[in-house]
Amino acid sequence: MAKARRPTAMEFGSMPLDPKYAWGRVYEPVEEMLNQLSRLLEEIAKEVYYGKEFTDPELEDRILSRLDELVEQGVLERMPDEEGAMWKRVLGRRKYLRAQRVRIKRMVEYWRDHGGPDI
Q1: Which of 1, 18, 37, 107: disulfide with 45, CB 3.0–4.6 Å?
Q2: pLDDT, tens only, 25-44
Q3: Measured distance CA(107)–CA(90) in Å, rounded
Q4: Which residues are paired to 77 by β-bridges?
């Protein structure tokens, strides 16, 4: 029997995953950045599933640190920030982090209903 496809972190929420909506930070290639953040949120969701809690500053640090690592590794390129850009006014840091928490929560709930994160 074929293993069912697990939904991605992006599929667990409708809010933007792009960090320009929180901090005005712009990374390219965009698709790779979104894929990497999606993977990071899945890692964090696994930690939450097994009992770890994250404050907003800790979640923010994990996201920004991973992006910095990816730039250092040459996976992503950081473009000039869009300071004061419309993007941050649309969502902002607090709502962005809340949106990521929604994704994490939905993944954890899905895993609880379907046998864990390693299904």
Answers
A1: 107
A2: 999 999 999 999 999 999 99
A3: 25
A4: 28
